[in-house]
Amino acid sequence: MLNGAYLTTVQNIPLYRIAAFDEYPHLSQAIFTRHGGVSQAPFASLNLGSSVGDAPEAVAHNMQQVYQTVGATRTQTVTCYLVHGIEVLTIEANNQQAMMGRADGLVTNCRGVHLVMRFADCTPLIFFDPVQEIIGLAHAGWRGTMQNMAGVMVTAMQRLGSQPNDIITVIGPAIGPCCYEVGAEVIQAAHENLAQPQTLFERPHGEQAYFNMWGANQQQLVTAGVTKIIPMNLCTACNTSQFFSHRAEKGRTGRFGVVIGLKA
Ligand SMILES: [Zn+2]
Q1: What spacing in Å lies between the alpha carbon of 178 and ligand 1's midpoint?
Q2: What is the CATH number of domain 5-175+227-262?
Q3: Which residues have C-beta within 8 Å of that of residue 167, sequence separation ≥ 6?
Q4: For labeling, which of 38, 48, 178, 204 is most exposed (least CB within 10 Å)?
Protein backbone atom coordinates (compact mmCIF):
# COMPACT_ATOMS: atom_id res chain seq x y z
CA MET A 1 0.00 0.00 0.00
CA LEU A 2 1.40 3.35 -1.00
CA ASN A 3 1.17 6.43 1.14
CA GLY A 4 -1.53 8.79 0.00
CA ALA A 5 -2.00 12.53 -0.11
CA TYR A 6 -1.55 14.98 2.72
CA LEU A 7 -2.34 18.67 3.04
CA THR A 8 0.52 21.05 3.77
CA THR A 9 1.58 24.61 3.04
CA VAL A 10 4.50 25.83 0.94
CA GLN A 11 5.29 29.55 1.07
CA ASN A 12 1.93 30.02 2.82
CA ILE A 13 0.09 28.37 -0.09
CA PRO A 14 -2.02 25.33 0.88
CA LEU A 15 -1.50 22.29 -1.33
CA TYR A 16 -1.66 18.52 -1.29
CA ARG A 17 1.42 16.40 -1.78
CA ILE A 18 1.69 12.66 -2.34
CA ALA A 19 3.65 11.03 0.47
CA ALA A 20 4.88 8.23 -1.81
CA PHE A 21 6.46 10.88 -4.07
CA ASP A 22 8.35 12.61 -1.27
CA GLU A 23 11.22 10.13 -1.36
CA TYR A 24 12.20 11.23 -4.87
CA PRO A 25 14.23 14.43 -4.59
CA HIS A 26 14.13 15.08 -8.34
CA LEU A 27 10.37 15.24 -8.33
CA SER A 28 8.40 18.44 -7.91
CA GLN A 29 4.70 18.04 -7.06
CA ALA A 30 1.68 20.09 -6.00
CA ILE A 31 -2.07 19.64 -6.06
CA PHE A 32 -3.27 23.16 -5.34
CA THR A 33 -6.60 24.10 -3.77
CA ARG A 34 -8.65 27.23 -4.47
CA HIS A 35 -6.81 29.18 -1.76
CA GLY A 36 -3.71 31.35 -1.82
CA GLY A 37 -4.37 33.60 -4.81
CA VAL A 38 -5.75 37.05 -5.54
CA SER A 39 -8.90 36.37 -7.61
CA GLN A 40 -12.25 37.63 -6.35
CA ALA A 41 -15.46 35.58 -6.02
CA PRO A 42 -16.63 33.43 -7.73
CA PHE A 43 -13.01 32.73 -8.70
CA ALA A 44 -11.55 33.18 -5.22
CA SER A 45 -8.81 32.88 -4.99
CA LEU A 46 -6.08 30.78 -6.70
CA ASN A 47 -7.85 30.49 -10.05
CA LEU A 48 -5.65 29.39 -12.95
CA GLY A 49 -8.40 29.35 -15.59
CA SER A 50 -7.98 32.15 -18.13
CA SER A 51 -11.23 31.45 -20.00
CA VAL A 52 -13.72 31.45 -17.11
CA GLY A 53 -14.32 35.22 -16.86
CA ASP A 54 -11.74 36.09 -14.21
CA ALA A 55 -9.52 39.19 -14.48
CA PRO A 56 -6.47 38.33 -16.65
CA GLU A 57 -4.07 40.15 -14.32
CA ALA A 58 -5.35 38.12 -11.36
CA VAL A 59 -4.85 34.84 -13.25
CA ALA A 60 -1.36 35.93 -14.31
CA HIS A 61 -0.52 36.76 -10.70
CA ASN A 62 -1.86 33.39 -9.56
CA MET A 63 0.19 31.56 -12.19
CA GLN A 64 3.34 33.31 -10.97
CA GLN A 65 2.47 32.23 -7.45
CA VAL A 66 2.11 28.63 -8.60
CA TYR A 67 5.46 28.69 -10.46
CA GLN A 68 7.19 30.15 -7.43
CA THR A 69 5.63 27.61 -5.08
CA VAL A 70 6.90 24.65 -7.11
CA GLY A 71 10.29 26.27 -7.71
CA ALA A 72 9.98 26.70 -11.47
CA THR A 73 10.19 29.59 -13.88
CA ARG A 74 7.53 29.99 -16.57
CA THR A 75 9.93 28.68 -19.23
CA GLN A 76 10.28 25.48 -17.17
CA THR A 77 6.53 24.84 -17.30
CA VAL A 78 4.44 23.22 -20.01
CA THR A 79 0.69 23.21 -20.36
CA CYS A 80 -1.98 22.72 -23.04
CA TYR A 81 -5.53 23.77 -23.92
CA LEU A 82 -7.76 21.05 -22.42
CA VAL A 83 -10.36 19.90 -24.94
CA HIS A 84 -11.90 16.69 -23.47
CA GLY A 85 -10.08 14.46 -25.94
CA ILE A 86 -7.36 11.85 -25.44
CA GLU A 87 -4.45 13.30 -27.35
CA VAL A 88 -1.21 12.91 -25.38
CA LEU A 89 1.81 15.05 -26.24
CA THR A 90 5.34 13.94 -25.42
CA ILE A 91 7.55 16.85 -24.38
CA GLU A 92 11.07 16.58 -25.72
CA ALA A 93 13.98 18.98 -25.61
CA ASN A 94 13.32 20.11 -29.18
CA ASN A 95 9.56 20.71 -28.91
CA GLN A 96 9.18 22.17 -25.42
CA GLN A 97 6.95 25.24 -25.28
CA ALA A 98 5.03 26.83 -22.41
CA MET A 99 1.81 26.21 -24.38
CA MET A 100 1.83 23.03 -26.41
CA GLY A 101 -1.58 23.46 -28.07
CA ARG A 102 -4.70 21.32 -27.74
CA ALA A 103 -4.35 18.08 -25.78
CA ASP A 104 -5.46 16.40 -22.54
CA GLY A 105 -2.32 14.48 -21.68
CA LEU A 106 1.35 15.39 -21.32
CA VAL A 107 4.31 13.07 -20.71
CA THR A 108 8.03 13.74 -20.51
CA ASN A 109 11.38 12.47 -19.29
CA CYS A 110 13.09 15.85 -19.67
CA ARG A 111 14.70 17.31 -16.61
CA GLY A 112 13.58 20.84 -15.84
CA VAL A 113 10.05 20.38 -17.23
CA HIS A 114 7.00 20.95 -14.99
CA LEU A 115 3.64 19.81 -16.38
CA VAL A 116 0.72 22.05 -15.38
CA MET A 117 -3.05 21.55 -15.80
CA ARG A 118 -6.25 23.13 -14.47
CA PHE A 119 -9.29 21.34 -13.03
CA ALA A 120 -12.78 21.82 -11.61
CA ASP A 121 -14.46 18.35 -11.39
CA CYS A 122 -12.68 16.48 -14.23
CA THR A 123 -10.24 13.84 -13.00
CA PRO A 124 -6.56 14.75 -12.63
CA LEU A 125 -4.39 11.70 -13.36
CA ILE A 126 -0.81 12.12 -12.15
CA PHE A 127 1.84 9.62 -13.27
CA PHE A 128 5.40 8.99 -12.11
CA ASP A 129 7.76 6.20 -13.08
CA PRO A 130 10.63 6.42 -10.59
CA VAL A 131 12.68 3.78 -12.42
CA GLN A 132 12.89 5.60 -15.74
CA GLU A 133 12.13 9.05 -14.26
CA ILE A 134 9.19 9.69 -16.55
CA ILE A 135 6.23 11.87 -15.53
CA GLY A 136 2.75 12.39 -16.91
CA LEU A 137 -0.35 14.46 -16.27
CA ALA A 138 -3.80 14.00 -17.77
CA HIS A 139 -7.26 15.57 -17.67
CA ALA A 140 -10.04 12.98 -17.77
CA GLY A 141 -13.61 14.21 -17.61
CA TRP A 142 -16.37 11.80 -18.56
CA ARG A 143 -15.58 12.14 -22.27
CA GLY A 144 -11.89 11.41 -21.77
CA THR A 145 -12.72 8.58 -19.39
CA MET A 146 -14.99 6.94 -21.97
CA GLN A 147 -12.09 7.03 -24.42
CA ASN A 148 -9.68 5.39 -21.93
CA MET A 149 -7.45 8.38 -21.26
CA ALA A 150 -5.76 6.49 -18.42
CA GLY A 151 -4.75 3.64 -20.73
CA VAL A 152 -3.60 6.01 -23.46
CA MET A 153 -1.32 7.73 -20.95
CA VAL A 154 0.24 4.44 -19.89
CA THR A 155 0.90 3.60 -23.55
CA ALA A 156 2.57 6.99 -24.06
CA MET A 157 4.82 6.35 -21.07
CA GLN A 158 5.65 2.85 -22.35
CA ARG A 159 6.88 4.47 -25.59
CA LEU A 160 9.39 6.37 -23.44
CA GLY A 161 10.48 3.13 -21.76
CA SER A 162 8.19 2.70 -18.76
CA GLN A 163 7.00 -0.65 -17.48
CA PRO A 164 3.37 -0.25 -16.29
CA ASN A 165 4.23 -2.07 -13.07
CA ASP A 166 6.72 0.68 -12.17
CA ILE A 167 4.31 3.57 -12.69
CA ILE A 168 2.73 5.22 -9.64
CA THR A 169 -0.58 6.87 -10.54
CA VAL A 170 -2.63 9.31 -8.46
CA ILE A 171 -6.36 9.79 -9.07
CA GLY A 172 -6.68 13.39 -7.93
CA PRO A 173 -9.56 15.54 -6.61
CA ALA A 174 -12.56 15.24 -8.92
CA ILE A 175 -16.34 15.04 -8.70
CA GLY A 176 -17.20 11.79 -6.92
CA PRO A 177 -19.98 9.20 -7.16
CA CYS A 178 -21.65 11.03 -4.27
CA CYS A 179 -22.35 14.09 -6.47
CA TYR A 180 -21.90 13.19 -10.13
CA GLU A 181 -25.48 12.77 -11.28
CA VAL A 182 -25.51 11.93 -15.00
CA GLY A 183 -28.06 11.42 -17.74
CA ALA A 184 -28.68 8.97 -20.55
CA GLU A 185 -25.73 10.20 -22.66
CA VAL A 186 -23.15 9.19 -20.05
CA ILE A 187 -24.89 5.91 -19.19
CA GLN A 188 -25.04 4.89 -22.84
CA ALA A 189 -21.39 5.88 -23.43
CA ALA A 190 -20.34 3.84 -20.41
CA HIS A 191 -22.11 0.74 -21.68
CA GLU A 192 -20.49 1.17 -25.09
CA ASN A 193 -16.97 1.91 -23.87
CA LEU A 194 -16.27 0.60 -20.37
CA ALA A 195 -15.50 -2.98 -19.42
CA GLN A 196 -17.58 -3.14 -16.23
CA PRO A 197 -20.19 -0.35 -16.51
CA GLN A 198 -22.58 -2.06 -14.11
CA THR A 199 -20.10 -1.48 -11.26
CA LEU A 200 -19.77 2.25 -11.93
CA PHE A 201 -23.28 3.60 -11.39
CA GLU A 202 -25.12 4.10 -8.14
CA ARG A 203 -28.71 5.17 -7.54
CA PRO A 204 -28.73 6.28 -3.89
CA HIS A 205 -31.74 8.60 -4.22
CA GLY A 206 -34.07 6.75 -6.56
CA GLU A 207 -33.95 6.78 -10.35
CA GLN A 208 -31.11 9.25 -10.91
CA ALA A 209 -27.79 7.63 -11.78
CA TYR A 210 -24.51 8.75 -10.24
CA PHE A 211 -21.32 7.92 -12.15
CA ASN A 212 -18.15 6.77 -10.39
CA MET A 213 -15.51 8.44 -12.56
CA TRP A 214 -12.77 7.66 -10.02
CA GLY A 215 -13.61 3.98 -10.26
CA ALA A 216 -13.72 3.99 -14.06
CA ASN A 217 -10.23 5.48 -14.23
CA GLN A 218 -8.98 3.01 -11.64
CA GLN A 219 -10.33 0.07 -13.66
CA GLN A 220 -8.62 1.37 -16.79
CA LEU A 221 -5.31 1.77 -14.97
CA VAL A 222 -5.53 -1.81 -13.70
CA THR A 223 -6.33 -3.04 -17.22
CA ALA A 224 -3.25 -1.14 -18.49
CA GLY A 225 -1.09 -3.02 -15.98
CA VAL A 226 -0.68 -0.32 -13.34
CA THR A 227 -0.56 -1.77 -9.84
CA LYS A 228 0.54 1.25 -7.82
CA ILE A 229 -2.58 3.43 -7.69
CA ILE A 230 -3.28 6.16 -5.15
CA PRO A 231 -6.97 7.19 -5.18
CA MET A 232 -7.40 10.45 -3.27
CA ASN A 233 -11.18 9.88 -2.97
CA LEU A 234 -11.63 13.62 -2.63
CA CYS A 235 -14.82 15.00 -4.17
CA THR A 236 -14.57 18.53 -5.55
CA ALA A 237 -18.35 19.06 -5.40
CA CYS A 238 -18.52 18.02 -1.73
CA ASN A 239 -15.57 20.29 -0.95
CA THR A 240 -16.19 23.66 -2.58
CA SER A 241 -14.64 25.29 0.47
CA GLN A 242 -11.37 23.74 -0.72
CA PHE A 243 -11.66 23.18 -4.49
CA PHE A 244 -13.42 24.69 -7.48
CA SER A 245 -16.36 22.59 -8.72
CA HIS A 246 -17.97 23.35 -12.07
CA ARG A 247 -21.04 21.27 -11.16
CA ALA A 248 -21.57 22.41 -7.57
CA GLU A 249 -20.98 26.07 -8.46
CA LYS A 250 -23.15 25.93 -11.58
CA GLY A 251 -20.39 26.82 -14.00
CA ARG A 252 -19.43 30.08 -12.27
CA THR A 253 -16.10 29.14 -10.75
CA GLY A 254 -12.36 28.91 -11.31
CA ARG A 255 -9.82 26.16 -11.95
CA PHE A 256 -7.29 24.77 -9.47
CA GLY A 257 -3.84 23.68 -10.56
CA VAL A 258 -1.97 20.39 -10.54
CA VAL A 259 1.79 20.34 -11.19
CA ILE A 260 4.23 17.46 -11.58
CA GLY A 261 7.79 18.20 -12.59
CA LEU A 262 11.31 16.88 -12.91
CA LYS A 263 13.74 19.30 -11.39
CA ALA A 264 16.56 20.64 -13.55
ZN1 LIG B 1 -19.40 14.59 -3.58
Answers
A1: 4
A2: 3.60.140.10
A3: 127, 128, 129, 154, 157, 226, 228
A4: 204
